[in-house]
Structures are given as structure tokens and as C-alpha cells.
Design goal:
The chain is α/β, with parallel strands linked by helices. The protein has nine helices and five strands. It has a single domain, classed as Rossmann fold. The N terminus is likely disordered.
Length: 206
């Protein structure tokens, strides 16, 4: 009985340690060392599909932080198509901080996860090589396991990017926050801005 109780206690300690590690154990994000522009790079969520004019999350962040943010979102982008325009739409604009939100269209089109995160790794890595900081915005998929969420977290740790997980949590499937089946409405985009703002503000602080 004592051995069993000890095992239970030990298991509780291990679980608590794992929770602490994933919540607070990740290293801090690398700060920008070069560049001048703030760029939001991604698909229709960055573009703001479903939002009223000026109510997409990029516009909201720009208004709140009183800084211009280049919206380099393009509806329908996969990680592969985004990678092809990375030079023109991000690197050519002298980025200082880049918000990266990609992967949803890969999942919808059943692109293998290995290919998705290889492309994302290349995108984030090339941005970081320029001295720009990255806010990596993650998506969670699946009801039982969330392999996407784990891969985003690993990529953020590997590249020293700031990480904002599960950006559509509590938004997707909530009709009061959605304009259609996959795009938020104004309220949904407000919540997205709320979640990204602390990470972006921290990287912009001198």
C-alpha cells in the first residue's frame, strides 16, 4: 500500500513538473537585432477574411500599439505557397518583427504534417537569419491528440520565436465569434488580437 501511495505521489510530481515546463520552462524569445518594419505574414486569417474594414486582428494590433503593421496575408496560402513569396513580401521589407500564422490550409488540404513544418521551419529560420524576431502563431487540430500544437511549440523553441498557441481556441465552432465555418468575425478577430498583443508588445519594447 505504501509503495502504491509513493508511486501515486511520484506520478503527481512528474505531471506537475511537466506542466510547469511547458508553461514556464521555455526559453525567452529572441529579440530583434535588425530591421525596421513589422509584418504579419500568413493566409486569410492574417488577411482578415470575415472582418469588417479595420477590424481584422492586424489592424487592431496596429491601432492598439500605435505602430504601422504591413499586412502580408493572402487567402488560400499554404506553407509552400507562402514560402515562395517570403522574399518579396517579407524579407524585402526590412522586417524587424514578423507575425507568422500559417498551417490551416495545409491541414484542410491534407498536406503531410512533416512537409508543413519543414516549410514553416524554413520560413521562420530565414526570417530569424535576418535578425528579425518572430511571433509564431499556432493552430490546434484534432479532438484527442494535437500533433500540430506540439510541432508549433517545438519549432518555436528551436528557433527562439515567441509562441502564441491555439489561436482559434474558443473561437472556432462558436457561432457568435465566426463569420463562416473557418473565418472569425469581428469578435473573433478581437480575441485573436488580445492573444497576440502581449507577445508583440514585448518584442517591440526597447
Amino acid at each position: 500500500m505504501r509503495a502504491r501511495a509513493g508511486t501515486i505521489v511520484l506520478g503527481g510530481v512528474v505531471i506537475a513538473a511537466l506542466v510547469w515546463f511547458f508553461q514556464a520552462g521555455a526559453p525567452p524569445a529572441a529579440r530583434p537585432t535588425a530591421g525596421s518594419a513589422i509584418v504579419a505574414f500568413g493566409d486569410s486569417l492574417v488577411e482578415g477574411h470575415g472582418a469588417s474594414p479595420g477590424r481584422d486582428f492586424v489592424s487592431l494590433l496596429s491601432q492598439r500599439l500605435a505602430v504601422p503593421i504591413i499586412n502580408a496575408g493572402r487567402g488560400g496560402d499554404t506553407t509552400a505557397s507562402a514560402l515562395r513569396r517570403l522574399d518579396r513580401d517579407v524579407l524585402a521589407r526590412d522586417p524587424r518583427v514578423v507575425i507568422v500564422l500559417l498551417g490551416g490550409n495545409d491541414f484542410l488540404r491534407r498536406v503531410p504534417a512533416d512537409a508543413t513544418f519543414e516549410n514553416l521551419g524554413t520560413i521562420v529560420g530565414r526570417i530569424r537569419e535576418r535578425g528579425a524576431a518572430v511571433v509564431l502563431v499556432g493552430l490546434s487540430v484534432g479532438l484527442v491528440t494535437d500533433s500540430y500544437g506540439r510541432e508549433y511549440a517545438r519549432l518555436a523553441e528551436r528557433t527562439a520565436a515567441a509562441y502564441v498557441p491555439d489561436i482559434l481556441g474558443g473561437i472556432l465552432h462558436n457561432q457568435s465569434r465566426m463569420a463562416d465555418s473557418i473565418h472569425p468575425n469581428d469578435e473573433g478577430y478581437r480575441i485573436i488580437a488580445d492573444r497576440i498583443e502581449p507577445a508583440l508588445e514585448d518584442l517591440l519594447a526597447e
